[in-house]
Specification:
about 250 residues, mainly alpha, about 0% strand
């Protein structure tokens, strides 16, 4: 814990400016206004904004491996990041009656996406999502995982809390889905774009592209999203089995 606090002290721009701090607050507000304009604002009432609700998603945003922020010595795994981002929702769920089957449907696509990226990158660390695999099956799995993650966000965003904590949660979920796209852009731009320039140019491009992809996902009828997700989950299992067979 002492090492973590010391590292956070050295990385104060992450905490105060980007990707946490000022950037997180402004970007989450813009995202929520965009969702509201599209008729997809969170349907649950906003709970009172408390540190207990704001801190977990803000921690995830602060620790995201996004350039041009200075690299941080401690990272998060995808399941831990998802749990922290969903903390405001879990707090609201404790006072609501939601069937276990509904919860399973809520997280079916994110879990399938986590399986895909774990096989594609060899782990669940968020920093691994930035590494573009060399083999075609792993590349397909990473792309499919990112697509399933973004496709599963509309259901999570609609059935979630509003307010400041809900806005930070929504931004964090979107930016996690941005990481594989950023890795693909970095791999494609590597031969002609200097590293310093890529660190400043590619993250905004990846964020905007992920937001546009989310906009498309928001317009997919829920029944079709479920069918596409089921087909995508089956494809994940098939590609994962193929990738495992090639390793042997």
């Amino acid at each position: 814990m002492g090492e973590l606090l010391g590292a956070l002290g050295l990385a104060w721009p992450r905490v105060l400016l980007y990707p946490g701090g000022l950037f997180a607050l402004v970007a989450s507000l813009v995202l929520m206004r965009w969702l509201a304009a599209g008729g997809t604002a969170p349907a649950w009432p906003a709970p009172p904004a408390t540190v207990l609700d704001l801190a977990p998603p803000l921690v995830v945003l602060t620790l995201l491996p996004l350039a041009p922020a200075r690299p941080f010595p401690f990272g998060l795994d995808l399941p831990v990041a998802l749990a922290l981002l969903e903390w405001p929702r879990f707090r609201v769920l404790a006072a609501r009656d939601r069937a276990p089957a509904e919860l399973l449907r809520d997280y079916a696509l994110p879990l399938a996406a986590a399986l895909a990226v774990a096989v594609a990158t060899g782990g669940l660390e968020l920093s691994r999502l930035l590494r573009w695999p060399g083999a075609v099956p792993e590349q397909a799995l990473l792309v499919l995982g990112a697509a399933l993650w973004l496709l599963g966000l509309p259901r999570l965003l609609r059935a979630g809390p509003g307010g400041a904590a809900g806005a930070l949660r929504a931004l964090g979920l979107l930016l996690v889905g941005t990481l594989p796209l950023l890795g693909a852009l970095a791999a494609a731009a590597g031969p002609w774009l200097p590293a310093d320039g890529a660190g400043w140019l590619l993250p905004p491009v990846a964020m905007l592209s992920a937001a546009l992809a989310l906009g498309v996902a928001l317009r997919v009828p829920e029944r079709w999203a479920g069918r596409i997700g089921a087909a995508g989950g089956a494809l994940v299992l098939a590609l994962a089995a193929y990738a495992a067979s090639t390793v042997r």
